[in-house]
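Request: Mind sharing a record?
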Amino acid sequence: MSTISGILLFALSKKVTTPLNKLAKVADEIALGNYGKKVKVKSSDYEISALSKSVNSMSSAIEQKIEQTELFTIKWRVV
């Protein structure tokens, strides 16, 4: 019985840790300046899905702000 429990626990932990590891890798990429990175995590866990969407939203928002800053800088160089 304990062997079956151990196998089930291992499978469950992989189901949770794999998407979290993907999220961590994308967050690291964003921190390095790769703002276009998006998370491609499909999870039935609400919390992990919500976190994935939040990371993608953050990445898009940062990317947009940088583009706006670059356009503003270009505009003021011309003037």
